[in-house]
Write a structure and sequence with these properties.
mainly alpha, about 60 residues
Length: about 60
């Protein structure tokens, strides 16, 4: 499992998604003062989640 790192800004494609207000506030507080956008944070979180799922699936298949 890899560690989550707050990403720098990189090219993205616009997608519309709804988030709970409290989660938006928490994320904005975490990235405040860092070179990171809300979208970049969410993309990195999704990448980590997908990598973890793939890794867990791989472990389950090998058992």
């Amino acid at each position: 499992m890899r560690d989550f790192k707050i990403p720098s800004i990189y090219p993205t494609t616009n997608k519309c998604i709804r988030f709970p207000n409290d989660l938006i506030e928490d994320i904005e507080n975490v990235i405040e003062g860092k070179n990171c956008t809300f979208s970049a944070f969410i993309v990195e979180a999704a990448r980590v989640a997908v990598d973890n799922i793939k890794e867990n699936d791989k472990k389950s298949t090998n058992q």
